[in-house]
Amino acid sequence: MILPLFLLLFIGVSACAEAQGLPAxxxxxxxxxxxxxxxxxxxxxxxxxNAITDVPGVRVGHATVIRGSGRLIPGQGPARTGVTVIxxxxxxxxxxxxxxxxxxxxTGEMTGLAWVExxxxxxxxxxxxxxxxxxxxANGVMSWMIARYPGIGVxxxxxxxxxxxxxxxxxxxxxxxxxxxxxVVRALDGASAGPVPEGNVGAGTGLIAYGFKGxxxxxxxxxxxxxxxxxxVLVNANHGRRSELVxxxxxxxxLYGPADSKGAEGSVIIVIATNAPLDARQLKRLAKxxxxxxxxxxxxxxxxxxxxxLAFSTATIxxxxxxxxxxxITAFADTHMNPLFTATVEATNxxxxxxxxxxxxVVGRDDHKAEAINLGRVREILxxxxx
Length: 387
Hints:
Blueprint: H1 5-19, E1 59-67, E2 79-87, E3 95-106, H2 113-119, E4 121-122, E5 126-130, H3 134-148, E6 162-166, H4 181-189, E7 208-209, E8 212-213, E9 215-223, E10 229-238, H5 252-256, E11 267-274, H6 280-296, E12 306-313, E13 318-319, H7 338-358, E14 362-363, E15 369-370, H8 375-384
Parallel strand pairs: 5-6, 11-12
Antiparallel strand pairs: 1-2, 2-5, 3-4, 3-12, 3-13, 7-8, 9-10, 10-11, 14-15
């Protein structure tokens, strides 16, 4: 018997959902980016992809690790985790990018920040993963770099990778450290300048934000008033309580319904890219403004939250070992930075909300379930809300 095409598609997607520990019920509601809900998300326009990859040269890659189900056997599974990488540009080792960072709340880790703060530049890809997988992912970045630059640690400098973590132990066997060095290399080799998958993918696979399934989100803004520049943001959202969630100024979390009392404090990682010619000091200023975008979603940077923000610019090339004692740069006037601040705030806000609206329900270890936010319920709230 030949089944209709739509039925074959349904069975195929259902099987895929089951394989990922997702109930077939997630199929009842198509996931959309938050902009489709008609919320006010700021005054600036997004880029063509509305993603960090709208910044020319920036690439993003994921490796997602999903296997096993049921009872947790520490060190064995189930696994709901992964790694996400951001490549600032080709050959960033020899053509470094200016960078700056800001730590809003430090209950977490982003390795390599001491050197970023000291040098004012970034010279390798950024990786995001879970807390206990951090050393293994750093090894993967180092292996990938050494394969491309064999002189590292021999005739060339050494490296201290930038790897940021979030705790995914509510859904994932975090003791198993299931992200391998091969997964990291796969993510880096597959990094693309195209659309960025969002929600429970890569490092966002096992994360929970505002009491809903969270994970990876991205957004961008175009600035035309001070030149043609783009600001792009990528987040890994694992923070907040449901009652705090605000979407487009509407207290969705408070109006949504009862929250899971087992919700824990988590973390958020925010990476900002721009092609505006900013130096390290100015990029740190930009990173600070991302905290305002985070606040627009309701976050108060709780005591147990690790809120790490890193910003870089692709406009300037900082040479690896310059032959001359000087090299040219273009200086951007501080008095013209306001549109860049606005872009950062807006893109951060939208990226976090995209992580929520694009994520799907996940069942993890010990059958713990992270429900995706119900977009139909959100639409109902938006329709009836009166300030």
